[in-house]
Amino acid sequence: MTLSFEGRVVLVTGAGGGLGREYALAFAQRGASVIVNDLGADTKGGGKSSAAADKVVEEIRAKGGKAVANYDSVEDGEKLIQSALDAFGRIDVVVNNAGILRDRSFARTSDMDWDLIQRVHLRGSFLVTRAAWNHMKSQKFGRIIMTASAAGIYGNFGQANYSAAKLGMVGLANTLAIEGRKYNIHCNTIAPVAGSRLTETIMPPDLVASLKPEYVAPLVLWLCHEQCQENGGLFEVGAGWIGKLRWERTQGCTVRQKNQPMTLEAVRDQWDKICDFTDATKPANAQESLQSIISALSQVESEGEVSANPTASATASSSGINPAEAVGQKIPPTTFSFTHTQCILYALGVGMSTKDPDHLRFLYEGHPDFSCLPTFGVIPSMTAMMDGSLSSVPGLNIDFTRILHGEQYLELYRPLPTSGKLTSEASIGDVLDKGSGAVILLDVNTYSGDELVCYNQFSVFVVGAGGFGGRRTSEKVKASLPPPKRAPDAVVVDATTRDQAALYRLSGDWNPLHIDPSFAAMGGFKAPILHGLCSFGFAARHVLKQFADNDPSRMKAIKVRFAKPVLPGQSLQTEMWKEGNRIHIQCKVKETDAVVLAGAYVDLHGAAEASPENLTQGEGLQSELVFAEIGRRIKDSGSDLVKKVNAVFGWEITKDGKNAAQWTIDLKNGSGSLQKGPYSGKADVTFTVSDEDFMEVVQGKLNPQKAFFSGKLKVRGNIMLSQKLEVILKDYAKL
Ligand code: NAI
Hints:
Elements: E1 9-12, H1 18-29, E2 33-37, H2 51-62, E3 66-70, H3 77-88, E4 93-96, H4 111-139, E5 142-147, H5 150-154, H6 160-180, E6 185-193, H7 205-210, H8 217-223, E7 234-238, E8 241-245, H9 264-269, H10 271-274, H11 286-302, H12 323-326, E9 330-338, H13 340-349, H14 360-363, H15 378-386, E10 403-412, E11 420-433, E12 437-448, E13 451-463, E14 490-495, H16 500-504, H17 517-522, H18 532-548, E15 555-562, E16 571-579, E17 582-589, E18 595-604, H19 623-636, H20 640-645, E19 647-655, E20 658-667, E21 673-676, E22 685-690, H21 691-698, H22 704-709, E23 713-717, H23 722-730
Parallel strand pairs: 1-2, 1-4, 2-3, 4-5, 5-6, 6-7, 19-22
Antiparallel strand pairs: 7-8, 9-11, 10-13, 10-15, 11-12, 12-13, 14-16, 15-18, 16-17, 17-18, 19-20, 20-21, 22-23
Helix pairs in contact: 1-8, 3-4, 4-6
1,4-dihydronicotinamide adenine dinucleotide (NAI) binds at residues 13-14, 16-20, 37-41, 43, 45, 52, 73-75, 97-100, 120, 124, 147, 149, 192-194, 196-199.
C-alpha cells in the first residue's frame, strides 16, 4: 500500500530550492498540506525574496496540491509555525532544511561567519522546532528532521563554523528523540549529499546533475511517516543510497588500581589497548555509555575486597615488604578544611540525636557549649589513609587492595576546633610480620597551624603479605587491653538506625561496602555493614556521657580493635569498667551477643585538669592586639566615645571552643575604660565569639548581624546595643 500524508501538515524550511523544494513537492504529491518556507536569500545568507517560495507553491498548486508560502527567516521560528496554524490549523511535520554556507579556513573565520552559520542552522532549527513542540505534544504526533552534514560528522577543511553547527544539530536531535518519545514525537537526522546551488561550486557539474535531490527525499518522507518508528537515528543519504550511523567504542581499558593514584604513565602504557577497536561496542544511549564506566568502577573497587573474607586470599603471599626501607617513611601531608557542618554531620553519623538533650551541644552550632566530638579526630587523618598515598611508600610493595582496618588508637592534645583547617602528617611507624599477613602501623599527627591537635595510629592488616621475616610486635604498638574479669560498671544499649552507615559515610568514608548491597554481597556480607569507626564513635560517646559528663575536653585517648562487623539497624551494647581514669570497654551487637569492639579502652583526663582556669588568659590570641588598641583609643578619645555610646560591653573570647579571655569595654562610666578579665560591674550586653570570628568582624569581613544569625556571635543582655557595636568596630576596622 502506498504511503500517504493525507491530513498531515508539513513545514519544510528553505524549501525555495535544492533539497527543500524536492521535499515540499514530494510531501504535497502524497497529500500533505505544505508550508513552503524560504527567505529567498543567497547562499551566504544575504538578500531576501519571496520569489523562491512562491514558485514552489505554484508548482505544487499546479499539480493539485495544497501549499502556502512563508518568507520568514527560520530565526523567527514562531512565525513559521503560525503560518501552518493559520493556513491548515495544525502542524505535524517539521523538516529543518534551510541553510547557508560561509566557508573560510579557520584562522580567517570572522565572528560574523561563525554567528550567522550558528544562527541559521542550529539556532534556527531550535526555534522552529520549539515553536512546533507543544502542538505536537498535545496531539501526540510529531515528526522532526534535522539536516546535518558529513562536514559535521567527519570535519571538512574550511567549514569549522558549519561543521560545529551541523554536529550541534545531531546533539539536539539526540535529546529531542528522548524527550519526544512518549508523545510519539520522533526526531531523526540526515546528512544528505545532493547537487544543489550549495554544492555546485565544489562538485563537478555532471556529479551535481546526477546527485539528484529526488534521491534523498524518499528517506525524509519515510522518516516523517506515522508508520515509521525510527527515532534518534542518523542517516547518510545520496544518489539513492541510504546508510545509518552509530557510535562505536573500543573495549577500553581501566588504567588504575584500587587505592592507587591514576597516573599519566599508566595511560601512556595502555594507549594501544585504549584505542584498539577489536570487539568494539556500540553504546546506543548515555546509560549504556555510563554502564561500562560504572562496571569498571566496581571492578576496581572490588579488587581484593578481602575485608569481607580474609581467609579467602590469605594464602596468596606477595611479599614486597622491606621494613628497613619503609619504617619512618613520610606520606605527603594532607589538609582538611571544615566548618560546624562536618562536626554536626559526624555527631549524627555516630548516633547522636536531639531526643537526648545532652546531645544538643554537639548538634547545634548556636549552643553555648557547642563542641566537636573528640572522636571526630579520626576524620581529618582518614584522608591520609584513603587517598592511596600508602601505595607510594618505598618498601611497601604490596597489594593495597587487601587491607583490613584492624585497630585504631586516637589521642587528643587539645579539644578539637569546631571549624578551620587541619593538616595531617603521616608516617610509617612500623611494619610487623604476622605470618598470614603484615600489620602496618600508620602514625598520623594532626595539626591546627603549629599546634598538635591529635595523634592517630591506624593498624592496617594486609592479608597475605606476611612471611617476610619481620618482627611480630613492636614497642610502637598502642596495645589493646582486655577488660577486667568482673561485671561491667555500666552498660549502655543504643540502637543504630537502618541508615546509620548511609549517614556516617558522609563524614568521608565512601567505601561502597557500607551502602551498596551488591558490593557488600561480593564481599560475602548479606547486607552493607556499618563502618568500624562508626561503632567506635558510638562507644566513645557512651563513655563520655557515662563518665565525663559529656565534656569533650576530658577525653584523652581511645583504643579499639575491630573484631566483627555490625549491620545498620542493630543495637550496640557498650559495657564499661572504670579503673581510675581508664574506662575499659567492650562493644557487642545486642541481638547476637557478638563482640564487635574488643580490647578497647578510653583514657580520661581528671575532671580538674581541663577546666578553663588552666588555660592562660588570652595568651596568643589575635584579639589581644585589637583590645590593646581599643584601650589606647578610649584613652585618646577623652569622653567622646562615652557620650556617643553610653554602654558597657562584655566580651568572652573563645579559642577551640573554650573560654580563653574576657574583656570589658566600659563606655558608660567616667571617660571610659578597658579591663581584662571578669568585670565586677554589670555589662549591659555581653558578646561571646571565637578569637577567629572576632578578627573577621573587626576586619569587616564578617557582618556582626550575620555572625549573630549564624551562631558565631552570641549576645546576652540588651541586644539592641549590639547595633552600636558596628559603630565602635567600624572605627577599628583599619587596624
Ligand atoms: P540550497 O541553498 O539549495 O537550499 C537552502 C535554502 O535555504 C535556500 O533556498 C535558502 O534561501 C534557504 N535559506 C537560507 N537561509 C534561510 C533562513 N534564514 N530562513 C529560511 N530559509 C533560508 O541548499 P541545499 O543543498 O538544498 O541544502 C539544504 C540543506 O541540506 C542545508 O541545510 C544544507 O546545509 C544541507 N546539506 C546539503 C548538502 C548537499 O550536498 N546539497 C550536503 C550536506 C548538507
